[in-house]
Amino acid sequence: MHAVIVWWDLSRSGQTIESLRGFLRDEAVDRFSRIPGLRLKFWISDEATDRWGAVLLWESREAATAPLPNLAAKLIGYPPTERHAFDVEATVEGDFALAALSGRGLALAPATG
């Protein structure tokens, strides 16, 4: 298994965390659900530092090197500010109440108002 973490500092971009949440809802989540070899991807944000990113867990290093649809970089206007890749030493799933991870997170939560 192989893990990749990418971060963007959005301070130079016209995009915001909120606008990128719309991008997740409208297209990115669905597109990444069909990527061969991708076990898990979760998008992360830090409003205090205006950062946006993702953590990807791959079945193999080879799968992690396959070209990806990278519309986020196109929308943001530049490649990730930071990118780190790691070998995974071990995995575990804890004792959890939620049956599935798909469809969860701030970008996919029902609107309140």
List key phrases describing it:
23% helix, alpha+beta, 113 residues, single chain, globular, four-stranded antiparallel beta sheet
Written overview of the protein:
This protein is α+β, with helices and mostly antiparallel strands and 113 residues long. A four-stranded antiparallel beta sheet has the order 2-3-1-4. The model has no long low-confidence stretch (mean pLDDT 88).
Summarize the structure.
Helix content is 23%, strand content 27%. It has 113 residues and is an alpha+beta fold.
* Rg estimate, integer Å: 15 Å
Tell how many strands the DSSP assignment holds. 4
Described by the principal axes of the CA atoms, the overall outline is globular
Physical arrangement of strands within the biggest beta sheet: 2-3-1-4
Helix content: 10-25%
Mean pLDDT over the full residue set: 88
Q: Alpha-carbon distance between the termini?
A: 41 Å
Structure annotation, total helices:
3
The secondary-structure element order is EHEEHHE
Q: Give the DSSP E fraction (strand runs of 2 or more residues).
A: 25-35%
- Structural class by SSE content: alpha+beta
Please describe the topology of this protein.
Layout: E1 2-9, H1 17-32, E2 38-46, E3 51-58, H2 61-64, H3 71-76, E4 82-87
Antiparallel strand pairs: 1-3, 1-4, 2-3
